[in-house]
Amino acid sequence: MISLLTIILQVALEAFIKNPNLAGGSLCGYFPQDTTVSEAPKGYQPFYISHVARHGSRFLSKSSSDCFRVADTLAVYAGKGMLTDEGLALWEDLKMLYGMSDGRFGSLTALGAQEHRDICARMVRHYPEVFSGPARRQVITWSTISQRVQDSRAAFTDELTSRAPSVKIDEKVPQKSGTNSYALQEVTGIHLTKAERAAAAKEEKSFHKWADLLRKGYDYNVFETRIFKDPAAIPAKTVKYIVRESFKALKTGCVTDPATMPSIGKYFTPRELYALWVGGTLSWARYLNFPGYVNPFTTARGAILECIIRDADEAVTLNSPVAATLRFSHDTYMLPLMASMKLEGTVLSCTEQEIPEYFQDYNFVCPACNVQLIFYRAGKNAPILVKFLRNEKETLIHGLEPATGYYYDWQAVKRFWQKKIL
To answer: In the 3-class helix/strand/coil scheme, how is the chain assigned residue by residue?
Structure first.
């Protein structure tokens, strides 16, 4: 177990040493992993794009805003002269972050909007043929009713119209459905039933068990010596509270105002970041294809997969005016969609305790994370080809051979999905 932990820890340490903010996991800020465009098969050109994305970086959510109470705890120790200079700096940073966030909890940040503008800019630059043709000028967009999601869509389409003025944006208006405000099938798919959620919760207990084991006994000695003049005088329970709540706030602060807020590496070592991060990345395992795990989340996303197939089949007809379909949603819909597509990296063949070695949440569900399907045609009788991008990196489908390179026969993809998930 010790050697295994060393291996797993090393994967995260290497990443956190280079970029501590990655420990923020699903809140770490978007970073394109690889925008290389491989050469298409001879005679083929892109003509249609299906794009699904999470909203961009946001302010701290309202439900998590109570983490700022830790500033009151630090104020007590500051009044007693028990904080070091770093402890006082942490206190000031938390107060500054609260001032930035107050009244804007959960809203899209300026960085979040820029993330989507940049993704759009690269899309147009890499696939100009899609948006410059005289016949295909319609771009259909979908969004959940969440304001930060709609603002993300607006940032993307504003950039698109500035770079491709001839396109016409067809903005679909999201509607509430029943008691679930996000039950927009075009974007999220079908929601789980009560029984399915109960079954998933039962399966997830083992993931939480391994998260607790992998960080068991870690006492954050380095952090407490940085923050307190006399760490021995501070109850261990209080230290862990300050650690947990400061981390929760600071990892969002990094994408709230990067020019002002410090990296979370200012206060936490890579080893401490690992202990704080590992539970988060393991919690995402419930959305993955995992041995022996019945995944109702992935099955429930079959509805949006059907929508993607429907739209693509309509768009590949020669007389279609549609150049792209853009969908904007949330992280808890994005990863199940990636898993239902069987994208590379979402099918794990390891033990539960090894998951952090093979799956890191920041590589999949960071803000503005996205899946792109780029469609190519060569002629009237040639098969339609499609390639997949996950966060702008060309990727493969687990269990299906491509026609060549990263390019798949669209009909083969549909048959594969029909057999595996639909």
So the answer is: CHHHHHHHHHHHHHHHHHCHHHHHHHHCCCCCCCCCCCCCCCCCEEEEEEEEEECCCECCCHHHHHHHHHHHHHHHHHHCCCECHHHHHHHHHHHHHHHHHCCCCCCECHHHHHHHHHHHHHHHHHCHHHHHCCCCCEEEEEECCCHHHHHHHHHHHHHHHHHCCCCEEEECCCCCECCECCCCHHHHCCCCCHHHHHHHHHHHHHHHHHHHHHCCCCCCHHHHHHHECCHHHCCHHHHHHHHHHHHHHHHHHHHHCCCCCCCHHHCCCHHHHHHHHHHHHHHHHHHCECCCCCCHHHHHCHHHHHHHHHHHHHHCCCCCCEEEEEEEECHHHHHHHHHHCCECCCECCCCHHHHHHHCCHHHCCCCCCEEEEEEEECCCCCCCEEEEEECCEEECECCCCCCECCEEEHHHHHHHHHHHCC
Give the pLDDT confidence of 302-354 residue by residue, as tens digits.
Answer: 678 888 999 999 999 989 999 999 999 999 889 989 999 999 999 999 888 88
Q: Residue 140's domain spans which residues?
A: 2-420
Output the domain CATH number for residue 239: 3.40.50.1240
> What domain count does the chain have?
1
